[in-house]
Amino acid sequence: MPSPSSLPHLSRRGLLAAGGVAGLGALLAACGGEGSGSGSGGGSKGDGWSFTDGRGKKVSLDAVPERIVAYTGTAAALWDFGVRDKVVGVFGPTKKKNGDPDILAGDMDISKLSIIGNAFGEFDLEKYAKTRPQLLVSNMYVKGEFFYVPAESKDKIFKLAPQVAMNAAHVSMVEVIQQFGKLAESLGADLKSKANAEAKTRFEKAAERLRKAAKSGIRVMAAAGAPDLFYVSHPDANSDLTYFKELGVDLVTPKKLNKQGFFEELSWENADKYEADLIILDNRTQSLQPKALTSKPSWNDLPAVKAGQVAQWAAEPRFSYAGAAPLLEDLAEAIEKAKKVR
């Protein structure tokens, strides 16, 4: 799901304009301009490459792209499927202040990647051009919008390489993972490899474990904390929650949603509006974690918090079997250990 701070109408940061970069015109020309489909990095010869993305748009190139720049979470999923050397750059939360990989980077070796931007609104257009991109890939949470691609500079960004948007909302996580698998396979990944086969098997076992755990009737609330607001997420908008619901998990369904339909914004005074036995809390860097939330009396008063029934929630799941299996296992374990407190 998009984080509250990354949605346009909620952002508290100004987007960094990418215009006016010295020498950008020359870089644009070197990369081939809009719709060139090849960049200057070269690609394998053959019958060409095409992929129909989440917009329903068929993106075609003369050859399989060899130089891909992607949103960090998107790249991490492709990495899991086996697309690694072809990913040359990323944008989005990638590296923490201490140099460690951000949680969204998954298992990627970020030392080998050009980080085009490390936060919402950051996208270094000149650095992007220097990667000689042949394809730009990002998740799509809001129809037609490329996640973490700044609206103010997207026209210039899109001139450098064709784009693929991966639908990541309002559909079950299983379908999203399958689409990521198709994209990875088109880029050269072997979906029948031992690693991919083992990851899928683990995912399927984890799903059955969660299905069994959900029969206990434990009610789960997916939430995120910010200094001024408490966000309760809607299971029909977030693909992972949609899948958890399909497996039988009893999820809180907020009623008064934000414009995009992902969550309800509650003042901290109203944080107790919905009852839950277990709270799964957004674990991303920009969200407040349990230790920070102890300063909120209304948080401490929630029955699930009093009972110590708070678990992490990967609000932006990695759309691969390897990335999603641990999420199912962790939720199953949290539900298995929880007791009803409503």
Notable traits:
6-stranded mixed beta sheet; globular; 342 residues; 5-stranded parallel beta sheet; alpha/beta; 13 strands; 11 helices; 30% helix
Please specify the SSE layout and strand pairing:
Blueprint: H1 24-31, E1 49-52, E2 58-61, E3 68-71, H2 72-81, E4 87-91, E5 114-117, H3 125-130, E6 135-140, H4 154-158, E7 163-167, H5 173-186, H6 194-214, E8 219-225, E9 229-233, H7 239-246, E10 250-251, E11 263-267, E12 278-282, H8 290-293, H9 297-300, H10 303-306, E13 310-313, H11 321-337
Measured as a percent range, the helix fraction is 25-40%
Sheet/helix structural class: alpha/beta
Shape field:
globular
The chain-level mean pLDDT equals 89
Q: How far is it from the N-terminal to the C-terminal residue, by CA?
A: 27 Å
Radius of gyration (Å): 20 Å
Number of helices: 11
Strand content: 15-25%
Low-confidence stretches: 7-45
Q: Please provide the count of β strands.
A: 13
Order of helices and strands: HEEEHEEHEHEHHEEHEEEHHHEH
Biggest sheet features: 6 strands, mixed
